[in-house]
Design brief:
This protein has 390 residues and is of the alpha/beta class. It has 17 helices and 13 strands. Helix 1 links the parallel strand 1 and strand 2.
């Protein structure tokens, strides 16, 4: 009698509709015929009624109401996951949920996969601690996460950059980049710089300080003199008070720079709605500053490629720059320098055929080399070596 592999996605912080964990991993596991149970906090970015599309079973517990509560979320995760029977593999996307999975695996013999999204002891830790506390605890956190890695059966990383700090752990590692799923490219690509498009529409995406929003606004104010028909889509993801710059500050900057007419400021939308929005654009921006961008390989890069946009990305982001240069699908700029960004925008505004060709090459490269269905294959093969009778 065949055995159906049971994977328990165990999270202490990720929402029900998280792009990487739900729309990619959970869907791929179900597509392979695995049974999937999700144990995590009861919250979603968008519609609570629109996350259960793949036949996943959910065991939810109340979301932590404060930062202190978040620290102790592992207790709720453990109690909820303890009720899930016959688990073959735990998949955990945070250090604390990985620790819970390790503890549970000692009881039932399950395998543990730890999926590392970012360098936790650096950028992530800096969101919680500042000054001397950050400096003192940073190496301690790195060692703790490295120890967690060494106790897992497999460590998955979004990029080489995020895995490198924990590479001393004696455990197998696999890179699974956050490529867009193939359905992102099911419709015709964007008509980049097409006959009916006289200007340039840019996709900036989520708006925060770390994502370079203020610098992009300054760049647009510089570029509009030479590129008069510009527009940019930005999503309101400001968290008031968290960065010292919120929606009101953003709107005030638009007024000061006299570029309000260039900005299409929208509420965030679920991932399923993004392809149609991106197809209305010509260029995708990855505007991260150095703190966020040096080690980044974000979802949006591959979403831009899937919809056939030309891309302007940070010159200092090694892994993004490698793809841009290899595929010849965009330009690189210093996203901490408004003039550098403006120069890239103006170049593509003037050289419209080159912009269009970049978009075509991006789409072709996505379909051949940079899509999720191809990216997930090594992990699926590894799971099948652990549980061959499915």
């Amino acid at each position: 009698m065949s055995h159906t592999v049971h994977i328990c996605i165990l999270t202490t912080a990720h929402p029900l509709d998280d792009v990487r964990v739900n729309n990619k991993f959970a869907q791929s596991f179900r597509d392979e015929g695995f049974k999937v149970t999700w144990v995590g906090p009861d919250y979603a970015y968008f519609d609570h009624n629109n996350y259960n599309r793949y036949g996943v079973n959910y065991q939810l517990y109340p979301q932590a109401s404060s930062r202190l509560g978040r620290i102790f979320s592992h207790r709720s995760a453990y109690e909820a996951a303890l009720q899930v029977e016959d688990v073959d593999i735990y998949y955990s996307p945070e250090p604390d949920s990985a620790e819970v999975a390790i503890k549970l695996s000692r009881k039932n013999g399950a395998k543990v996969i730890f999926d590392i999204h970012e360098v936790y002891h650096d950028v992530m830790l800096s969101r919680w601690l500042k000054g001397w506390a950050f400096k003192v605890l940073r190496p301690v956190a790195r060692k703790r996460i490295e120890r967690t890695c060494s106790r897992c059966d497999l460590v998955v990383g979004v990029s080489h950059a995020v895995l490198e700090p924990y590479s001393q752990a004696k455990v197998e590692q696999i890179i699974v980049r956050s490529c867009a799923p193939n359905w992102f490219a099911k419709d015709p690509p964007a008509d980049v710089c097409g006959e009916g498009r006289t200007g340039l529409k840019l996709m900036h995406g989520k708006s925060t300080l770390g994502r370079g929003t203020t610098t992009v606004l300054e760049a647009l104010s510089l570029a509009k003199a030479d590129s008069p028909k510009l527009s940019a889509i930005m999503f309101d993801t400001f968290l008031e008070g968290s960065e010292g710059f919120g929606s009101n500050d953003f709107l005030q900057q638009l007024k000061q720079l006299e570029i309000a007419e260039l900005i299409d400021f929208r509420k965030p939308v679920p991932m399923q709605e993004m392809p149609s929005i991106l197809r209305s654009c010509d260029i995708g921006l990855i505007s991260y500053n150095r703190a966020l961008g040096l080690e980044s390989l974000p979802n949006k890069l591959f979403e831009y490629m899937a919809t056939g946009l030309a891309i302007i990305a940070p010159s200092y982001s090694e892994e993004i720059a490698k793809i841009i240069n290899t595929e010849q699908c965009g330009l690189l700029a210093d996203f901490e320098d408004p003039a550098s960004i403006a120069n890239a925008i103006n170049y593509l505004y003037i050289n419209r055929e080159k912009c269009r060709e970049m978009g075509k090459r991006a789409r072709e490269a996505f379909l051949k080399r940079h899509n999720w269905q191809a990216e997930i294959v090594p992990l699926i093969k590894k799971i099948r070596t652990w549980c061959p009778q499915t």
